[in-house]
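Quick illustration, no need to memorize.
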Amino acid sequence: MLEDSEQEDYSDGTISEEDESDEDTFVKFVSEDLHRSALLTADSISYPSFPRTTQILLEYRLGRWVPRLREPRDLYGVSSSGPLSPTRWPYHCEVIDGKVQHIDWTPPYSEPMYIPTGLEIEPLYPNSKEDTVVYLAEDAYKEPYFMYSRVGGTRTSLKQPVDNCDNTLMFEARFESGNLQKVVKVAEYEYQLTLRPDLFTSRHTQWYYFQVTNTQAGIVYRFTIINFTKPASLYSRGMRPLFYSEKEAKAHKIGWQRIGDQIKYYRNNPEQDGRHSFSLTWTFQFPHNKDTCYFAHCYPYTYTNLQEYLSSISNDPVRSTFCKIRVLCHTIARNMVYVLTIATPLKTADSRKQKAVILTARVHPGETNSSWIMKGFLDFILGDSSDAQLLRDTFIFKVVPMLNPDGVIVGNYRCSLAGRDLNRNYTSLLKELFPSVWYTRNMIRRLMEKREVILYCDLHGHSRKENIFMYGCGGGDRCKALYLQQQIFPLMLSKNCPDKFSFSACKFNVQKNKEGTGRVVMWKMGIRNSFTMEATFCGSALGKKRGTHFNTKDLESMGYHFCDSLLDYCDPDRTKYYQCLKELEEMKKHTNLEKVPDDSAINTCMKEITLELESSSQGSDSSESSDSQTYLLKLTSQIKTKIKHLKTKKERNAAIKCHQNPRKEQGGKYLDKPLLGFQKDT
């Protein structure tokens, strides 16, 4: 529907992708400059030649009735004349009244990561009937799979948290994007927390976001989340939890902050089935008495936040002229998945010469940092700068800012309400089960029939590595030139923001268990530059920002740098392009040198395999993930097998000599040869 004609891209901002067959019937009968003198609907006239429908209007003009189609109603998308579409929850989910809001604030300094002292303790909590359960969300397990949705969730009366002690903290997470399953008070100022797995699964405990009230200032509290499933975590590398105080926000305009002392991420004792879970513990002193506070894994960005942002665009008389907002589809809970078309409206044939750029985000709902990068991109591309205008004149941008609103609403970390990872189902034909990725793939396929798509990028968060980096798709040795060309855009990005983006962390290959991801599917469809951008939940290990956390402005700035690098990549002056290509060829020569395998090489390789298995782009379906240990053992066997076939001593000595002058890396840039910095005209 969206791509059947160029005029449709700009004619209306509220047509649904699902209604593509209806829009093709629109015909304009009369000129808009005629004055209306009378108006009837076609079904009010008993005349055989007129169909009985309310969609045809009859205007009495110049002595005769003239038919025309009724203007499309705001059934879909963001309407400037009405309220936002209410969020729909699984019918059994308990949802509190009221709306949780946070102010937008950036710390005046870069927040440092936590440095372990070596004195951190590892609390282990045996089950005790004497412990007090102060919070329990029982609604998550009422149904084994999704049944149907309601606005506002369950209609039964909500169970209120326990309030039996003046000094007991009160917990709450039954709000949009909240996640907390159970809280047990194990000591006077110590609490054991359990996260809720993704709905209709038994896995994926990573995202947390909950409220704490009845606080006392100056008291050292300890919080321990006991049911993480990943053996490695950025909390072991200095990441701190996020904290928000409503009194601090009101009195001092201070928003989300990194907090916590005695932070420790550790393995629990084995469970009955032999599996290990992992715990995160930290201590903290609240700044105020009787405050309402929040803790979160990353900066929250809800479905309501997105709708409010899109509403502001729709109500803006300038931005709405070149940004059309439509509904791509509805989720299985009947929440809307929006698609934005951003371009300077062109009514000439030149519009078909415009190439397309596609961005998507939040296929994994707990990766909120991807929404902040998306917001930064939209802020820039919809701005009034000359570079933004040039991009809108040059390209057509198709943007899906939130692919998994159902998961975002209920506080999932990875899955949709189908209990599956949408980023493993881009090849699926089950439109009803995975509508957002099915319609996204279909929209891109039709777009490619009309114009070239030069770049596709899916925004993600990463839970084990610092910095921001990309995963691309490899062309292999059979197509060396193409393989290197796919790395040019990430290399440019690393040059434009060397304190945040690490080119050395980028990978360009296609693994079998990633064939259902958006990145790989779009690459196989013919998009040469098909990427996943991974943003750490923590911070930077590069340059001036080394050892500090990323805040929302850091993440938003990546949206600007993305646009900046896109201008470099498509600059008619190809100097920067060929400089990067030459630099990549030099890197390739170094990486092709034979390395002598040793124990440290084996350990490094195994570490990379483990991280890759558990990375943000790892499969999450239980049928796939349950075999990860078997897969790891298989890879281990392959590595050991290859190591047995060593070269001769003479060949090994020659290889050692070649490595006497290894490549060096600093700030994401290779320094084998002098690099030219890219200067922007701003």
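The chain has a mean pLDDT of 81.
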